[in-house]
Specification:
Number of domains: 3
Number of helices: 7
Shape: elongated
Helix content: 25-40%
Strand content: 25-35%
Order of helices and strands: HHHEEHEEEEEHHEHEEEEEE
Radius of gyration: 23 Å
Strand order of the largest sheet: 2-1-4-5-6-7-3
Largest sheet: 7 strands, antiparallel
Number of strands: 14
C-alpha cells in the first residue's frame, strides 16, 4: 500500500510539473497539498534563531542557531498538514521563531501524530506535525538522559504507592488528587500524551483517583510527588499523602533500580537505608 502511494505521489508531481505550470518540485508539492508555504520565511534565511521552551520546566530552554538545524526544522514544519481543530491537550513546548523584529510563536504538543488533529498552533493557524520533530530536534538537546523506560517506571511507581496507601491506611472511598505540578526535577520529561495514558491507567486500576486539574481542596487526600534523584538505571522519589480530614501526613519512598535487563520497582513506607 505504501509503495502504491509513493508511485501515485510521483505521478502526481510529474503531472503537476507538466500540466499546471509549476516551476519546481517544491511548488508542485504545495499545489498538491503535500507541503504548506506558511514557513517559507525560514527557508529564505530570514530567521536568526529559534527558541524552544518547555511549558513545565522554565530551565529547559534551548536555542537553534545552526543553519542546518534550522533547515531540518523547516523541512518538518513545511510538511505539516493544515487542519481545522487543535488538540485539547496542554502544549508541552513553545516555539519562538525570530524573524528580524518579528517573533512567530507556536505551541507544540509532543508525541501526537494524528493527521486530523492539530499539535502545533500559532499565527492564527493549526497544523498536524510529524513526531519527527521530537526525535530530530528536541531530544538532540537533552544533555541529561532520563531513566530507561521513564514513563513506565515513574507512573507505575506512583500507582504502586497510592494502591499501598489506600489498602494499608484504609482509605477506600476517599477521593485522591495527584499533584505532579511541583515535581520540578522531572518536569521536562512529563508530556501531555503520556499523562493521558496515565489517566487511563488510573481509571482502570484505582477508584476515585485522578491527576489534579482543579483546586486541591476539592480532594479528600492530596498525593504530592517529588523526585529525589535519577540516572539511567536508578529512580528515587517520595510520594507524600496529606489527608485534610485529620490533617495527617504519610510518606512513601520509591527506590527503583534497573538490574538484569528489567526494572525492580520498590515502594515502601519506611525510608530505605541507601535512599
Amino acid at each position: 500500500m505504501k509503495k502504491l502511494n509513493k508511485i501515485f505521489l510521483c505521478i502526481s508531481l510529474i503531472a503537476c510539473l507538466l500540466l499546471s505550470g509549476c516551476s519546481s518540485v517544491h511548488e508542485a508539492e504545495i499545489k498538491l497539498g503535500i507541503k504548506n508555504n506558511d514557513f517559507e520565511y525560514i527557508k529564505d534565511n530570514k530567521v536568526q534563531k529559534i527558541v524552544i521552551q518547555s511549558t513545565r520546566d522554565e530551565g529547559f530552554r534551548f536555542t537553534l542557531e545552526d543553519k542546518n538545524a534550522i533547515e531540518d526544522l523547516y523541512d518538518i514544519l513545511s510538511s505539516a498538514k493544515s487542519v481545522k481543530n487543535k488538540s485539547s491537550l496542554k502544549s508541552d513546548y513553545i516555539f519562538e521563531i525570530y524573524q528580524g523584529n518579528k517573533i512567530h510563536k507556536f505551541n507544540y504538543i509532543a508525541g501526537l501524530d494524528k493527521r486530523d488533529q492539530g499539535n502545533l498552533y500559532g499565527d492564527n493557524k493549526v497544523f498536524a506535525v510529524s513526531k519527527r520533530i521530537d526525535n530530530s530536534i528536541i531530544q538532540n538537546f537533552w544533555t541529561i538522559k532520563e531513566p530507561k523506560n521513564f514513563n513506565d517506571v515513574y507512573y507505575n511507581s506512583i500507582i504502586s504507592a497510592i494502591d499501598d496507601y489506600i489498602k494499608s491506611q484504609k482509605k477506600q472511598g476517599k477521593s485522591i488528587g495527584i499533584n505532579l505540578n511541583d515535581d520540578v526535577e522531572v518536569a521536562k520529561y512529563i508530556l501531555s500524551i503520556d499523562m493521558e495514558s496515565f489517566k487511563s491507567d488510573l481509571k482502570s486500576k484505582l477508584k476515585n483517583v485522578e491527576i489534579i486539574s482543579k483546586d486541591k481542596q476539592s480532594y479528600d487526600i492530596v498525593a504530592t510527588i517529588k523526585t529525589e534523584g535519577y540516572k539511567l538505571t536508578l529512580y528515587k522519589g517520595i510520594v507524600t499523602f496529606w489527608d485534610k480530614s485529620n490533617k495527617s501526613e504519610k510518606k512513601y519512598y520509591i527506590y527503583d533500580k534497573y538490574e538484569n535487563a528489567h526494572w525492580n520497582i520498590k515502594v515502601t513506607d519506611s525510608k530505605p537505608s541507601n535512599f
